[in-house]
Sequence to fold (593 residues):
Amino acid sequence: MANRLNVSVSGERGLAASPTDIAHKRRSWLRGDMALAVLVLLPSIIAVAIFIYGFIGWTFYISTVDWKSVVVDYTFVGLKNWSRMVHDRRFHADLRNLVFYAIGFMGQCIVFGFILASLLDQKIKGEAFFRTLFIFPFAVSGIVTGVAWRWLMQPTTGINLIFAKIGLGWFQPQWFASVDYGIWAVTIAAAWQFTGYVMALYLAGLRGIPNELREAAAIDGAETWAIYRFIIIPLLMPVTFTAIVLTGMNSIRVFDLVAAIGGSGAGNAIDTLALNMFQTTFGANRFALGAAIGAFMLLLAIFLVVPYLMSMQRETER
Amino acid sequence: MSIQRIWSRGAIYLVLLAFAAFYAMPFYVMLITGLKPYQDVNVTRMWEFPTGLYLGSFVQAWELVSPNFWNSVMITVPAALISSMIGSVNGYIFAKWRFRGADTLFILFLVGMFLPYQGILIPLVQTLMAVGLYATMPGLILVHCIFGIPITALLFRGYYAGIPNELMDAGKIDGCGFFGLYRWILLPISMPAFAVVLLWQFTSIWNDYLIGLIVLSNPVLAPVNVAVKNIAGSWSVEWNVQMSAALIAALPTVIVYLLLGKLFMRGLLAGALKG
Fold:
């Protein structure tokens, strides 16, 4: 794929002119137009260079200065902000919440996304209806999701009311208001929004598996679960990899959903790095400390993305 | 059909219906709560159907968020259009003008899709302030266009890569240059890609909260999701109005999704990279 243009440019297709003539002509327009292509791309390159890479570098730089009020202060203080960050209780709560959120959110999305896709792949009547409904939440914002689930997860009403009706009156969880498991409750709302997306990925993957493969296995006497265990799930590993990266990325940066559900919660029970960064920076005006949190989030994201992009590039080059 | 097969089919439908109920639940609750007057919004009767058709909550919510709704329109429409056009040209270059280092550059572009914006917010605000675009609508549109460069380039590049190079060669033979090839060969067959990208950008920009909050937090100019969040955060606004406001904010993307679900799906899969 990488050589496609070269191949097509040098691939002769019998023009009525001498080969040297064509080669000369082609090279000359190629040079001019190729330069034009780069030139047209240049504004985007500059924008990305500044707004993404320049800003990343600048954020890291700010995390090493003494800017802690509305007055900008670029006095270098080394890793003072980073040390302050890692000793902060709120930061510890955020890390704990990140781990729980990632496990809960990624687990629900991938497990239920796979189950739903597998079920929809069974030649279901009304497949379009179910598919549309399951992806539907992805079309609404995190704020809308948060507002709806805040109402559904009120300890005194909502889902608890249903639990009481069906004889589970003793089971009245505090949901996101709980200091112990509030963050798990948030993952339910988050997974409600994102599972459909993962399901769509798996569904496309399933549709790409040739039927002959399953039929052959079935003829060999393989049970359904064995077909899934030894053929389908291994074949869908690339989809799972993509889903892990996407859900992992969302776990790192979850912001609007938590903000709409109710902010940090008691004892930072549902606080996240993103919320912490925002409030530290734009609420408390501790810009350098906020930059350290933001830079930390970038580092987390880079660990997740670089292997993914490298695998993608390998695929492109193939 | 064997008994066993009937049972297993039945089980599949049962599970799907259970999930369907779970997925519909928040929409159902938003709708019935939004259609009730305040005195009927009661914690013990939350699930009960409204007794009559009452649109008062929607009227009240519309009064609260309609200015922000129109702000969102004025931000989202130009930003989606401009970023799609930029993406189309960039995708064309990345797909058909593979200059040396183009692939590496493309990967460097893609990194931008994965960033937690918290990592660049402070310089963003500083820069916008320095150029006088902070807290302005053009500023927010510009930011959405720039942050849309990676995903739009990715979507268009994928589409253009599937267009045979023979077509391009034919154009070259006819004397088309860089712009001519784009204008006369690719642009006329780009509409499917434009539809997908426009839809994708429209949805993401409309649903954005963080960038709008940072760049345009002024309540008068803020986009609709910022306004809905402010309403939800204040205890003085009743649940029924909160739900109506949330539904109003969700309406444009929901309508677009219902009308153009297929395109939306295509964007989802092609942009499988974006979170």
Q: What stands out?
A: The radius of gyration of chain B is 23 Å. Chain B has 13 helices and no strands. The CA atoms of residues 255 and 261 of chain B lie 9 Å apart. Chain B has one domain: 65-270.
